Amino acid sequence: MLEVKDLKVYFRTREGNVHAVDGVSFHVDEGESLGIVGESGSGKSVTSLSIMRLLQIPPAQIMDGSSIVFQDAELVDMEESEMRKIRGRQIAMIFQDPMTSLNPVLTVERQLIEPLQLHLGLSRGEAHNRARELLEAVGIPDAERRLRSYPHQFSGGMRQRVMIAIAIAANPKLLIADEPTTALDVTVQAQILELINRLRRDLGTSVMLITHDLGVVAGMTDRIIVMYAGKIAETASTDELFANPRHPYTLGLLSAVPRLDEERPTELQTIPGSPPDQLHPIEGCPFQPRCPFVLPQCKQYPPARKIAGNHVAYCWVDVTDPEEQKRAMQRGFIPLTEIGRSYLAQS
Amino acid sequence: MRRYVIRRLIQAVVMLFVMSIGLFLLIHAMPGGPDAVLFSPRMTAATRANLRHQYGLDQPLIQQYLSWLKSVLTGNLGFSFASGQPVAAEIGARIPATLELFAVSLSFALVVAILLGVISAVRQYSLTDYSVTVLSYFGIAMPVFFFALIMQEIFGVKLGWLPTCCRTSADTTGFTAFENFQDAVIHLIMPAVVLSFLFIAGWSRYLRSSMLDVVKQDYIRTAKAKGLASRSVFFGHALRNALIPLLTQVAIDVGAVFGGAVITETIFAWPGLGKLFYNSLQARDYPVLLSMLLLGAASVIVFNLLADVLYAVIDPRIRYS
Ligand SMILES: Nc1ncnc2c1ncn2[C@@H]1O[C@H](COP(=O)(O)OP(=O)(O)OP(=O)(O)O)[C@@H](O)[C@H]1O
Ligand SMILES: [Mg+2]
User: Fold this and answer.
1) Which listed site, A19, A148, A195, B90, has its alpha carbon 20 to 30 Å from B192?
2) B234-248 CB burial, b ≥16 within 10 A, e <16
3) Are B294 and B273 within 8 A, CB to CB?
4) Is the model's pTM score more than 0.80?
């Protein structure tokens, strides 16, 4: 349904080109849920905003050869007027910060009926009723009254529910959720994820769930893409990725997930080293300066290593090789325990 | 909200009181204050003492202030030195002309400023934006009197399209109602445009920058993500947010519009408060000056109060308690 091919998005800045997204390809099938995971700055938001064509151009530039095909239509060079019929109607988006994503001076009703009138051509009265149903559907009690409220009268979690209601208003085919829970409390996070999951089942919408936290996508998505420095590091089905991670960066992310099963709060492991400088991308694999498995050939970009089915890792090293692991452990690599991994997979 | 307004009202009254003391002292301290105006050097000492007594100038300053305050509070603003008429009547007679000029030029200024502000923000760094910017700096830098004189020269003298003086023609006998209206409009155009220029430049700059600020906000991205056309995004989502700070500025400026009015009205011989002020200043008609300064101070305070209340009304996030 959505097919992204060799997407390259650079930002022209005074110091030079920032390679925000650097040759990313993936697809989302009908009704499927895809997770995109990566550290801050890995290009997740830029990827999703490119699909929506909401990037400011310039400074952003979608490079030649990039292709985003949605339902047989190329989005990269689509007319703006055509694109507007896709935004909100076919592809809808939820953003990270519910505190700033709603217009503070307009009522929730006004913001909610906009897509209903725009895309479904509902009358004022029909839109009002539909808006109330939508609020109820996303679990906001007392919907009739809440329609007249302003965003500041809602809590963060409730605002994100409103955002979700707006996003699903016109029954889109694809819902892009860009870190929808990052700004929320842990308990509220779970509720919002559960809501997205339920709506996906009920409405048959495809979901692209973007997060920097592997713990969030576990149990939520069918497949996962791990991004690093604007490139795909590894992609696999969710179960496979947790059970059999093959990229050193994925291994690093997995050990960065806080383990709730351990009694003492473990010191949260972060991946050592500094995030990549996309202004001056290095030759070869972008992860090599931080990689405990690094080899001389990493100076060249690795070919796709097919693991199984749709499981692909872009790495020269076979991280399951005991010899390689021993070498990596001398550089501070800590292998994941079986318990930790199985916990992650089922959480 | 009500408590907030009441609290602000009390503050305003106190401010006004303090300002009345300040203005009173200022007028009395002016070189050539009331004494110098009233008395010609040839007056005999007896006449002088008599006059001083008549105007209450022989009393201690505090006494003078208190009796002035008392009469002001009862609506008696004293008598003009120049005309001998009650100050209240002098001022009252000028109010309609000034209101007419203000209402028209400020509404005009607001509409034009909003249009220019939105256009230059939407087309940031375009030719339109640069033109508006250059014009605004002209508007900000150009003295009002100079602009007024240029307008008069072009449209009044050279082209002969518009009258350069007064609120109506000198002789309106035999005019029908429509002709009277037409006459009034023709006379109003130039002074109104000149006065509005004072504000258009500043307000459109102000709106431009607050628009540019607003369009970077996340909720604008949300509006675009809904598939709204740019027009709806700008007018439906961005403008309302950008107007909030502008309207506060407008209310404050309107309270302080007086300065611009004095010059404009004087140049166009517009029979309003500004002209009265100018005449009184020339004649050192101090009861009138004092009352008008007080009126000016009151309008600044009232409009500042209005600005804050307005702010609370249009921005749902603000709830004063
Ligand atoms: N307007 C811009 N100008 C220059 N560089 C930009 C701009 N927007 C984003 N970038 C760069 O693009 C890269 C990718 O940014 P992106 O927002 O996609 O990251 P992300 O994966 O979404 O991170 P986060 O978890 O912080 O949201 C970053 O290196 C960022 O600095
Ligand atoms: Mg992001």
Assistant:
1) B90
2) bebbbbbbbbbbbbb
3) no
4) no
Instruction: Note whether B31 and B96 are same-domain residues.
Output: no
Chain B residues at the A interface, defined by Cβ less than 8 Å, are 217-219, 221-229, 232, 236-237, 240-241, 244, 314-317
Domains in chain B: how many in total?
A: 2
| Closest C-alpha residue for ligand 1 atom 2 | A11
Q: Which domains does chain A have, with CATH numbers?
A: 2-225 (3.40.50.300), 229-259+277-346 (no CATH)
Cα angle B235, B237, B238 (rounded to 5 degrees) comes to 75
Pick the ligand that lies closest to the CA of residue A275. 1
**Quick one: B35 and B134 in the same domain?**
no
pLDDT digits (tens, 9 = 90+) for A82-136: 999 999 999 999 998 888 999 998 899 999 999 999 898 888 888 999 999 989 8
Q: Nearest C-alpha to atom 5 of ligand 1 is from which residue?
A: A11
Cα(A38)–Cα(A23) distance, rounded to whole angstroms?
15
The whole domain housing B193 covers 91-314
CB within 5 A of ion ligand 2: which residues? A 45
Q: Are residues B54 and B153 in the same domain?
A: no
Closest-lying ligand to the alpha carbon of A95?
2
Whose tokens are 């100050």? That residue is B87
Asked if B107 and B195 sit in the same domain, the reply is yes
Is the bond leading into A172 cis (omega within 30 degrees of zero)?
Answer: no
**CA A250/CA A318 separation, integer angstroms:** 13
What pLDDT digit, counting tens, does each position of B162-205 carry? Answer: 888 888 777 777 788 888 888 888 888 888 888 888 788 888 88
